Amino acid sequence: MTIRDLQKAARQNVRDYGMYIALVVIMAIFTFTTNGVFISSRNIANLLNQTGYIAVLAVGMTFVIVIRHIDLSVGFLAGFLGAIAAIAMASWHLPVYLVLPLVLVLGIIAGLITAYPVARLGIPSFVASLAGWLIYRGALILVTSKTGTIIISDKLFNDIGNGNIPDLLASEVFLPGLHKLTLLLGAIAIVLFVFGQIRGRKSKQAYNFEVLPADMFVLKLVLLSIVMGLITWVLAGYNGLSWTVVIVLVIVGAYDYIAGQTVLGRHIYAVGGNPEAAELSGISVKKITYIVFGSMGFLTALSGVLFTSRLQSATPTAGTLFELDAIAAAYIGGVSAAGGVGKITGSLLGAIVYMSLMNGMNLLGTDISLQYVIRGLVLVGAVVFDVTTRRTKR
Amino acid sequence: MNTPILEMKNITKTFPGVKALSEVSFSVAKGEIHCLVGENGAGKSTLMKVLSGVYPHGVYTGDILFDGKVQQFRGIADSEKAGIAIIYQELALVPEMTVFENILLGNEIRKGLSIDWNKTIQRATEMLKKVRLDVNPTTKIRDLSVGRQQLVEIAKALSKEVKLLILDEPTAALNEDDCENLLELLRHLRKEGVTCILISHKLKEVIKVADTVTVLRDGQTICTLDARTGEVSENILIKHMVGREIDNIYPERKERKIGEVVLEARNWNAYDPKLGRTLLKDVSFTLKKGEIVGFAGLMGSGRTELAKSIFGNPDGYEISGELYFKNGEMHFRQPRDAIDAGIAYATEDRKGNGLILIQDVKQNITLANLNAIAKRGTIDNNAEVKVATEYRDALSIKTPSIEQKVVNLSGGNQQKVSVAKWLFVKPEVLILDEPTRGIDVGAKYEIYSIMNKLVEQGMSIIMISSELSEVLGMSDRVYIVSSGKITGELPIAEATQEKIMQLATS
User: Which residues contact B276 (CB under 8 A, 6 or more apart)?
Assistant: First the structure.
């Protein structure tokens, strides 16, 4: 493999892997400036748990933006549903296994309510969801007005945002101090990833589609495996995988599968790419709109649960600006505002980049005003990068 | 011959991997109508983009002499300043603004800080007179027909003291009357001293209006012909364009086996509540197995609306009447119902509502029938590739790969993708709305051959077309639509261009 091959491959793939590179650069900078505190097991675990509730929203927002809509109501809706969960446990004394489905169903209903004027009457989603923003904000303040902050004492519920998976393979002899189940799961993930990639490449070759040259492909596999291995190692060094990370991975996996492999996913991207053509191809744009907003509501409820559980309490300001963080994460992750384009994994990555910035700057004690400015610059930089690399590729 | 106003010498423009223009020379005399013809992908648009500065000086090689000076345009603004105006097929007007606002958009007449509206209206009225368009300048653009909008666009160009007017496929979306009107206007402008380059696929009108014709093929100038001698014919042009002779524009059908009626509408009415307009009135027609029925008529006569109202009514018209398909009465509530029953509709506007341009060939082909290649909601990628490859080969869609995005294909190949998509739903009735609009002669022939093969296999086709020769060349029977009503039905043996035009304008 010559330097020129590398350069060529880098140029062709800069768009696909630009965000990974950006993430590595950001992490390296923070690791350096914080004397390694940033990359410590404890901080990475903390960072990923913080990312959880935004990542979940960003995943839902990806589909919403792909079908050319927006949902501003998700922040306060997450806060409101979190408060409902808290009240259900604290005041109504409902058990967790009832509270969770209840809140998730309420989320879906709220999403469908936002979708109704959009799908049925053609009202811009910006307006419909702005109304939701106001309403849920009011509702959140209302339900917390009597009590103020509601403390949650249920351990099971609080574990969702703070607990880790149990180490079933705990051993004092073999690799003490490391979370063995996490290591095992990481290893399995790497093996599955490598085999999946090889299989995908083979089937592409069978059809004579363009694939990466063999050496580049191996390089990519090795690099990504190393990254996955490192993350596993770092997490195993603290308390292992947290439930939050498990939930996020399951959601991302499921949504990525829906986006790439299912009829529903194809319909969603078709509606985003050209709604009229989709309608005339027998796809009900209305139905897709309901489904996408319903899923957004579901994930909003999940995000509310994650956040409330993490704080172990519901507050009157919970969820403030979550919607904009999620939208920013999706855009950073390469979702196109013009519709029809955007990867679920991209949005997850966008969320991690975005939260890494916040986390790193907090460690450095950067002034909050400067933090906002830098986050804004990163957002605009990421979108400019996305737009310009997209153009040259044509 | 007059002195040339424009000379393009040895223009070469390469894109990564493709030589779009190779040593093209192109010279236009002052005050003439110069037609530029060639198949899609021959390099006409690229040449005009070089001329207008869309591709700035430096990204191509060769020289441009305009108005006696060597020009190095860095952008459209430069070429406009020099006196070159291009009017594209997709009009660049603001629908919500009035006629006069549009005419002087970007060229406003000022009085201090504000716009001098009186002078603006006065100037716009002058320009409208020049293009002989009799509308109130305060009308909104969206209330005008496409033909009239085109004239407004020309008026806008004229207001900029244009010396060279370039029209890219101006008549593609126009009915025959508006076409004639536009060509007449070009002749009139020629008298006024405006030089004009006309790009068109409609060879008949090229022959009618051109002083000179230049043929491009595969990025090269093939020849420049003097059209005033009367020696230029359609066949000669086609020969130069495709590099071979096409004996017949319409392929012969091997056998005509016309069977029972498969689709019938009785007293079909449609009303659009959004526009508050009656679209269709008492329309009745039949379609038989193995038959191609042509629906002729002017643009806006209601043919597309008829197709859509049958095809599950996606625009939400209020409909009354009876629709019979395969012996049963049908009530399609959405396109899916019609598709499932066995009716397919390929739209007239491929790019607008036919294809998903940012998706690839295979995704477009399978879009309307994904369940056929899916198991429990999960798409079988291998099956999809197989299907797409099959249709690519069957319709000879020219694409580097079935993973190519449709936006990168030529018009003819996009149309084939659109047809492939509908063939994959295995319909019994296929409605083709303007199936050959804006595609070149070779691709047209291929589309016609596909249509013939389909009806030979027992499919029934409704072909909506504004090109009379196509209607006459392909149909077994012709319905003529005018103002939302069927004004005539002619067996092909009795149909002539004159009869159809007469019924279409009645």
Answer: none
Which pLDDT tens digit goes with each residue over B79-91? 888 999 988 877 7
Closest residue of chain A to B313, computed from CA coordinates: A280
Q: Where in chain B is the domain with CATH 3.40.50.300?
A: 4-242, 261-342+427-504
Fold classified for B261-342+427-504: Rossmann fold (3.40.50)
Q: Is residue A206 part of a domain?
A: no
Which among B340, B370, B401 has CB closest to A266? B370
Contacts A394 to B, Cβ<8 Å: 408
Contact A341 B363 (CB under 8 A): no
Residue-wise pLDDT for B206-220, tens only, equals 888 999 999 998 888
| Minimal Cβ distance to A263: which of B338, B358, B379 | B379
Instruction: Give the per-residue pLDDT at B497.
Output: 81
Q: Nearest-CA distance from B497 to chain A in Å?
A: 32
Contacts of B6 (CB under 8 A, 6+ apart): B26, B27, B28, B51, B64, B65, B66, B67, B164, B195
- pLDDT, one tens digit per residue, over A261-306 is 999 999 999 999 999 999 999 999 999 999 999 999 999 999 999 9
Q: Alpha helix locations (H) across B353-478?
A: 361-366, 381-394, 411-423, 441-456, 468-474
Q: What is the distance between the alpha carbons of residues A200 and B311, in angstroms, rounded to a whole number?
A: 39
* Chain B interface, Cβ < 8 Å to A: 311-312, 314, 334-336, 338-340, 345, 347, 352-359, 363, 367-368, 370-371, 374, 377-379, 381-382, 385, 389, 401, 403, 408, 421
- Name the amino acid, one letter, at A123: I
CA end-to-end distance (rounded Å), chain B: 44
In the predicted structure, residue B249 carries a pLDDT above the cut 80: no
Superfamily of domain B4-242 in the CATH hierarchy: P-loop containing nucleotide triphosphate hydrolases (3.40.50.300)
Q: Smallest Cβ distance to B368: which of A273, A282, A394? A: A282
Q: How many distinct structural domains can be found in chain A?
A: 1
Residues of B in contact with A264 (CB under 8 A): 377
B359 closest CB neighbour out of A208, A273, A284: A273
Residue with the bigger pLDDT between A345 and B20: it is A345
Token pair recorded at residue B382: 């291998």
Helix (H, G, I), strand (E, B) or coil at B21: strand
Interface test with A, best of B315, B370, B392 (most A CBs within 10 A): B370
Q: If DSSP codes are grouped into helix, strand and coil, which group holds residue B326?
A: coil
What pLDDT was estimated at residue B372? 94
Q: In percent, how much of chain A has pLDDT > 90?
A: 69
Residue B225, SS3 per DSSP: strand
ipTM of the complex, rounded to two decimals: 0.85
